[in-house]
TrEMBL record:
Top-level EC class as recorded in UniProt: transferase
CDD domains xrefs: AdoMet_MTases
EC number: 2.1.1.171
Gene3D superfamilies xrefs: Vaccinia Virus protein VP39 (3.40.50.150)
Name this polypeptide is given: Ribosomal RNA small subunit methyltransferase D
Organism: Desulfosporosinus acididurans
Keywords carried by this UniProt record: Methyltransferase, Transferase
GO function terms (MF aspect): 16S rRNA (guanine(966)-N(2))-methyltransferase activity; nucleic acid binding
PANTHER family for the chain: METHYLTRANSFERASE (PTHR43542)
Domain of life from the UniProt record: Bacteria
Residues annotated as signal peptide: none
Length: 185
């Protein structure tokens, strides 16, 4: 796993040992950032279920202003902090050791341009996250929520998630990526 573009291109990232954390592959990460394009520049990023910090750190390498990384696993948190330290990104990051839903319940005044959701598959955590995000102001008016699920995991965003709607999807092997924005934009 590595940073694939930007000022830290080619730098290797540490991974969490074991099978509990599933980092986004370079292929999927490249596809995500190709879709996002210039939206990354100067963006404020929230990386829920952060794992290794892979997505937020890639965004920072590509010009994001700052990132908040939320992770409840102690082992993953140590890896995130090591990756941030190796890349010298401490001043542009805030790492929180807490459950993603606790963060969403307690930090409703925060607004982000990009929100990454890459929780464990088949646990409906993306749906649960979207329910909370749809009833808050976390997403900036032109912001994008990027959610990863298993390819066979449904994500029915309906009127219950207003004002959010699925704008685009991509399928990459076993992973499906969903790009979600506000309907009113």
């Amino acid at each position: 796993m590595r940073i694939i573009a930007g000022e830290m291109r080619g730098r290797i990232l540490k991974a969490v040992e074991g099978m509990l954390t599933r980092p986004t592959s370079d292929k999927v990460k490249g596809a995500i950032f190709n879709v996002l394009g210039e939206r990354v520049i100067d963006a404020r990023v929230l990386d829920l279920f952060s794992g290794t910090g892979n997505l937020a750190l890639e965004a920072l390498s590509r010009g994001a202003r700052e990132a908040v990384l939320v992770e409840k696993s102690h082992n993953a948190l140590k890896v995130i902090q090591e990756n941030i330290g190796c890349l010298g990104l401490g001043p542009r990051t805030k790492v929180l050791h807490m459950d993603a839903f606790k963060y969403l319940e307690n930090c409703s005044a925060e607004v982000y341009d990009l929100i990454f959701l890459d929780p464990p598959y088949h646990k409906e955590l993306v749906l649960q996250s979207l329910k909370t995000l749809s009833s808050s102001i976390y997403l900036a008016p032109n912001g994008v929520i990027i959610a990863e699920t298993a390819k066979d995991e449904p994500l029915d965003v309906d009127d219950a998630f207003f004002p959010l709607e699925i704008r685009k999807t991509g399928l990459y092997g076993d992973t499906k990526v969903w790009y979600i924005q506000r309907k009113d934009v």
